[in-house]
Specification:
Oligomer: heterodimer
Strand content of chain B: 25-35%
Order of helices and strands of chain B: EHHEEEEHHE
Structural class of chain B: alpha+beta
Largest sheet of chain B: 4 strands, antiparallel
Number of helices of chain A: 19
Number of strands of chain A: 0
Strand order of the largest sheet of chain B: 2-5-1-6
Number of strands of chain B: 6
Strand content of chain A: under 5%
Number of helices of chain B: 4
Helix content of chain A: over 70%
Distance between the termini of chain A: 70 Å
Largest interface: A-B, 16 and 16 residues
Distance between the termini of chain B: 17 Å
Shape of chain B: flat
Chain lengths: ~400, ~130
């Protein structure tokens, strides 16, 4: 059935029916099978009764197929319990809700609702839009899926890389949205990280031969274990050990399976280097820089280049780092991290006044409470004489 | 499912292009037409004369208004269309991606509205 909206409505109705009947008679021996059977019957009714004549032939054909699924099982028997994993079907659903013909924010909302099971109101709050706006976005998305015949299936091998990219991009978007919110007081938005991790875990489990979904899961776990902003100032004792542990294991597992490291594997490997270090000063920055060199080639992103510049500073000194950062001025001039990074390097080079200006510019560009606190602290430190950086020679 | 593929490109590109490039583009359209017809997906398709030959018609307050040229003053203009019958969007995308237009312009894919069971007058010929 290609109609997600109809499917969701019918399952909803089946659950309502279940509540009515089972309260009195108790649940049947195969509750899941009963729900599926009931939902199918509802769908057949709806398809046949549709007054709207558009696509009448198609609707009747769909009804006939559903009818066949029912009659092919013995009378009275709802059929074998559906595979609780519903692996292929859930995977097909994810590929549909993440179809690249849908806009990024549409894929995000639809995936959270249809795959994640979040309610429209929750999703709307997470992305700071009204419930009505999100509801409309979701309805339109489902209509587009129905109108264009997007299939709920794992794409053919030739199309898989492109379609998988769209799935991973969507999941990563959900995660970064939640991650950005983690430092603030809004717990609903921070919950997006948990949801993204759940969805990534599901995708990785359903596509065990693909290294990138596992690598993305590893990356999310390693980042979420830290749950905060800049690296050197975090209390490593507070990092979530179970998440770190799993993240590190998965990076190795994905690394073994990958012929050529993909985007998420490289990102995860970098996060793993940071996670492995007992203290910030112990980080294997040479390795991190080597990974960033490869990531920069694959990612083609100025933010990646910025992070690489930080690694350059650690390996070759702040002057070299500053040179790399300044090359990104045109692209990242409006990004607070750019100015924060510049400020830090200027501070290490003893250029306090310029550093102060750069911290000021970074502060002007961010509302995030934790980040502001950090920047203000660093800026204040300038007045008391710059604290020595572990690697800078006097 | 029926889809209409509408082809958009900047006509200035054609004016400046060397003759070999134009030949290549025409050959690519030829190849597409043959492949699509052979696969049984091609229902219709035409290349349109340049946009300056267009006339736009509107009737407002009972008055018929004619405009010289396309109604929309965009850089990328409609240059042609195809009507195809394929399994779904993914198939339509595969076919659209074979058109030379995707390299210098873009192709829009839209599903045709289903009207089965509705009498559309003379619209449904065969």
């Amino acid at each position: 059935m290609r109609d997600l909206e109809l499917a969701q409505d019918c399952v909803q109705e089946a659950f309502v029916e279940a509540l009515e009947h089972w309260a009195a008679d108790g649940p049947p021996p195969n509750p899941a099978g009963w729900i599926v059977l009931t939902a199918r019957r509802r769908a057949i009714d709806r398809l046949r009764r549709a007054v709207d004549d558009t696509r009448r032939a198609e609707r009747l054909a769909q009804a006939a197929r559903l009818e066949e699924q029912i009659t092919s099982t013995p009378a009275g028997d709802p059929g074998p319990a559906p595979d609780p994993d519903l692996g292929d079907e859930r995977l097909g659903l994810i590929f549909a809700t993440c179809h690249p013909s849908l806009a990024a924010e549409v894929r995000v909302g639809l995936t959270l609702q249809a795959v994640g099971g979040l309610r429209t109101a929750e999703i709307a709050r997470s992305f700071l839009v009204t419930e009505a706006a999100m509801a409309q976005r979701l309805v339109r998305a489902k209509r587009k899926i129905r109108a264009t015949g997007i299939t709920f299936a794992v794409p053919a091998p030739g199309r898989l890389p492109e379609r998988l990219r769209s799935v991973l991009d969507t999941l990563y978007l959900i995660f970064t949205e939640g991650h950005a919110a983690t430092a603030g007081p809004d717990l609903v938005r921070a919950e997006l990280c948990g949801e993204a991790i759940r969805l990534a875990r599901l995708t990785a489990r359903l596509l065990p031969d693909e290294p990138e979904p596992t690598a993305l899961l590893a990356l999310m776990l390693l980042l979420h274990a830290r749950r905060a902003v800049l690296l050197a100032d975090q209390d490593r004792a507070r990092w979530d050990p179970a998440m770190l542990d799993e993240g590190l294991r998965l990076v190795m597992a994905a690394g073994r399976r990958a012929e050529r490291p993909g985007l998420h594997l490289l990102q995860a490997a970098i996060a793993a280097e940071h996670a492995r270090a007992q203290a910030a000063a112990d980080t294997d920055w040479e390795r991190v820089l080597a990974l960033y060199d490869r990531l920069a080639r694959v990612a083609n992103s100025p933010v990646v280049d910025l992070n690489r510049a930080v690694a350059v500073a650690e390996v070759r000194g702040p002057a070299a780092g500053l040179e790399a950062v300044d090359r990104l001025a045109t692209e990242l001039g409006a990004f607070h991290h750019f100015h924060a990074t510049r400020a830090d390097l200027l501070r290490r080079l003893g250029r306090a006044e310029e550093a102060r200006v750069a911290y000021r510019r970074a502060l002007d560009m961010t509302d995030n409470a934790a980040e502001r606190a950090f920047l203000l602290r660093r800026s204040a430190d300038l007045s008391h004489g710059a604290p020595a950086h572990p690697r800078d020679s006097a | 499912m029926k889809f209409v593929l509408t082809l958009y490109a900047d006509e200035a590109g054609f004016a400046d292009a060397p003759p070999e490039a134009l030949q290549q583009t025409l050959a690519a359209f030829d190849a597409f037409n043959r492949e699509a017809a052979q696969a049984g997906v091609l229902l219709a398709g035409e290349g349109l004369a340049p946009s300056h030959t267009a006339t736009a018609v509107a009737v407002r307050d009972g008055e018929r208004l004619l405009t010289d040229g396309p109604f929309s003053e965009t850089k990328e203009v409609l240059g042609g269309f195809y009507v195809v019958d394929v399994g779904g969007l993914d198939d339509a995308i595969e076919w659209a991606a074979k058109l030379p237009t995707v390299h210098f312009g873009r192709v829009e894919i839209r599903p045709v509205m289903g009207y089965e069971g509705v009498d559309r007058g003379g619209l449904d010929a065969s």
